[in-house]
Design a protein that fits this description.
single chain, 281 residues, alpha/beta, Glutathione S-transferase Yfyf (Class Pi), Chain A, domain 2, Rossmann fold, four-stranded parallel beta sheet
Length: 281
């Protein structure tokens, strides 16, 4: 974890669509721990969808308008850093930012599409909330702990979009440790399991739930085999596939035993004694 440092500046916060609906617990717990740690997150006014998925077509500049508009609005309000909790939102915003920064012609053209917005000049740093916590420092996290987790064995599940492509990864794409450092600071015992960076099945859940159930089974059982008592994640889609698809897993694998799945921020809220936030989330 990075050296402990002071965090006094205001940080633009982009929630994204899911955190206002099915992933409300992720937002509620995150905002609670951020406030306790002194991270001044300010939700962007009039935010819109990030665009959901980064377009791989380099000539599809219109697909980049949604994420760049978000960055433009944050920059126009004077922010230098924008953070998000959703892995999909982070991946989309970060890749779009690098996409336009690498080619001034692209940026100029996209700015012409956004004639009612201030020109974006690439002045925003896109950081996932986990990165902010890592920069804050391990000692700062430890100071906030009121309920030590007493060696709770946690399997940290990253999935795809926090670590791929490598250009936007928040940690090593094969052996990440950023969530593990956080869990250790909370008093938990992170356990390594090989499937922690495997895809959960993503949007196949909408049309092929049985495929996702089989993938989720392998991930959860791999975590269990390596000693995990709980699996934590950051991605709302991963959370749904690993937690809510367990009913589908039982239909395929009769001997499957349920595994608890939580957002990493819920574990933090528990350790910080923010039980009312969890109850109301």
């Amino acid at each position: 974890m990075a050296e402990k440092g002071k965090q006094t500046m205001e940080i633009a916060y982009f929630p994204g669509c899911t955190l206002k609906n099915t992933a409300k617990r992720l937002e509620t717990s995150a905002l609670g721990v951020a406030k306790l740690l002194g991270l001044d997150l300010r939700e962007l006014p009039n935010w819109t969808c990030c665009g959901t998925c980064f377009s791989l077509a380099e000539d599809n500049l219109m697909k980049q308008v949604a994420p760049i508009r978000t960055l433009s609005r944050a920059a126009s309000l004077g922010y230098s850093v924008i953070t998000t909790l959703c892995s999909v939102c982070y991946n989309t915003l970060k890749q779009a930012d690098l996409f336009v920064k690498s080619d001034p012609k692209r940026l100029k053209k996209i700015n012409t599409f956004m004639e009612e917005e201030a020109n974006y000049e690439g002045q925003i740093a896109v950081k996932h909330f986990l990165t902010l916590l890592d920069e804050l420092g391990e000692e700062k996290i430890k100071e906030a702990v009121k309920h030590n987790l007493n060696g709770l064995k946690v399997g940290c599940y990253y999935g795809c979009l926090l670590l791929r492509p490598q250009s936007i990864a928040i940690d090593d794409c094969e052996q990440p440790q950023i969530m593990e450092r956080l869990m250790k600071a909370l008093g938990a015992e992170p356990v390594y399991f090989p499937y922690q960076v495997e895809c959960c099945g993503s949007y196949h859940t909408a049309v092929h739930p049985e495929i996702v159930a089989r993938r989720a089974y392998r991930i959860l059982e791999n975590a269990r085999e390596n000693g995990a008592e709980i699996v934590v994640t950051s991605c709302p889609l991963c959370y749904f596939n690993l937690k809510d698809r367990q009913k589908n897993i039982k239909e395929i694998y009769s001997g499957f035993k349920p595994m608890k799945v939580s957002y990493f921020t819920e574990i933090m809220a528990d350790a910080f004694g923010l039980t009312k936030i969890l109850e109301n989330g």
